[in-house]
Amino acid sequence: MLAVTLLSELDVYQVAYLCGGPQRVALAAVAGMAQDGRIKISRARHRVQAMHRRAGQPVERAVLDAVPASGKVLGPLIEEVAGSAAVQELIEGLRRAGLVGHHSLIGHPHLSAAGRAARKELEESGSEAPGERRVAVLGAAGITSAGLRGIFETPDPPPGGELVRRTRENVAPRTYGDNPSDPPMPMQPGISGRW
Question: At residue 55, does pLDDT exceed 50?
Answer without folding.
Answer: yes
